[in-house]
Amino acid sequence: MTLKLYSGWRATAPYRVRIGLQLKGLDFDYVSVNLLGGEQHKPAYRAVNRQRLTPALDLGDGDIMTQSLAILEWLDETHPEPALLPGDARTRARIRAMAMVIACDVHPLNNTRVGRALEAMDVSPVRRAKWSERWIVDGFQTLEPIIAEYGRGFAFGDTPTLADCCLIPQVYSAERFDVSLEPFPAIRAVAEHAASHPAFMAAHPDLQPDAVHA
């Protein structure tokens, strides 16, 4: 069975899953969903994902999974090596908590649909940018000391975990919103280290088939 990933090139949630798939060494077909063009709202994609979000992962047997963290945990359970959630129960809980800071508390507040909702309420572009920056900084302030304590090249330890699958896309998003990483040396060091890792390189938005280059 060939996996099929419904993705948008710079959307951070499918970016997480691309990292996970690359870390696991799994082949997959890439199906572009034009989020800015509203393709996610059309009947064809609504039949794939009722929530009208990316990612969606077609397992090839008629079953489709949604929600990036659920997909990543499924990948870890079905393809255990290399582990995205290594160690004992306490270690895995810490890694999940780090991932959830991004996936649950930061990203939902600065994604495309929230930005469009703010625009519909006549919030200016400058204030929308400040809104995004505020929540990214809040999340990074939470993660910085944790990574400084537990990171050993990656966010938790010396191998990539679920935390890195979430962190690196959020760093990419921070750079898009011109959020300075200067106050976050531990996060910056992880991002620099991941930039030379083949899985993170292959998953980068600029290398996706639907990437738009200015």
For the structure shown, list the relevant keywords.
single chain, 214 residues, alpha+beta, Glutaredoxin, Glutathione S-transferase Yfyf (Class Pi), Chain A, domain 2, 2 domains, 4-stranded mixed β-sheet, 4 strands, 52% helix, 7% strand
Short account of what is shown:
By secondary structure, the chain is an alpha+beta fold. The chain has nine helices and four strands; from the N terminus they run E-H-E-H-E-E-H-H-H-H-H-H-H. The relative contact order is 0.16.
Characterize the structure shown.
The longest helix is centred in the middle third of the chain and has 26 residues, at 125-150. The protein has a four-stranded mixed beta sheet with strand order 2-1-3-4, covered by helices on one side. 52% of the residues lie in helices and 7% in strands. The chain has helices at residues 12-24, 43-46, 68-78, 89-106, 112-120, 125-150, 162-176, 185-194, 198-203, and strands at residues 3-7, 28-32, 56-58, 64-66. It is built from nine helices and four strands; from the N terminus they run βαβαββααααααα. The mean pLDDT is 96. The N and C termini lie far apart (36 Å). The radius of gyration is 17 Å and the shape is globular.
Give unreliable regions as ranges. Answer: none
Radius of gyration based on Cα positions: 17 Å
Distance between the termini: 36 Å
In which order are the strands of the major sheet placed?
2-1-3-4
**CATH topology assignment of the largest domain:** Glutathione S-transferase Yfyf (Class Pi), Chain A, domain 2
The CATH first-level class of the largest domain comes to Mainly Alpha
Average pLDDT score: 96
Question: What structural class should be given to the helix and strand makeup?
Answer: alpha+beta
From the coordinates shown, what is the CATH architecture of the largest domain?
Up-down Bundle
SSE order in H/E notation? Answer: EHEHEEHHHHHHH
Count helical runs. 9
Count of β-strands: 4
User: Main β-sheet: number of strands, strand sense, barrel status?
Assistant: 4 strands, mixed
| Strand portion | 5-15%
